[in-house]
Amino acid sequence: MSAQRHTPGPWAVSDHRTVIADAADRIATKMGIVAELYSWMGCDEADANAVLIANAPRMLIALKTIRAEIESAIEDDPAVIGDPAMTRECHRIADEAICEAEGRS
Prior knowledge:
This protein has helices at residues 24-29, 43-54, 56-76, 84-101, and strands spanning 11-13, 18-21, 33-36. It has a three-stranded antiparallel beta sheet with strand order 1-2-3, covered by helices on one side. It is mainly alpha-helical and 105 residues long.
């Protein structure tokens, strides 16, 4: 995998739909702003988007962990993976999502 290019997590939702790098000194100074959210569909949508974005680093870690477990299961005992075609497809989807999240194509 490539080196991380995004702001390191964890991230958190700060005041008024602002996603920040979750460190006490950054929260106080707002120096770690990752994103500020706006929406033409209303405040509820912007609030939900802020929560989703703030959880992106955790979801990327979870996806990488799941992908590694699939790969390990395939290597250790292919019989435990169930439907091999579905497992390969899940593996492909995970790879694609990880590449997109890391800015690789």
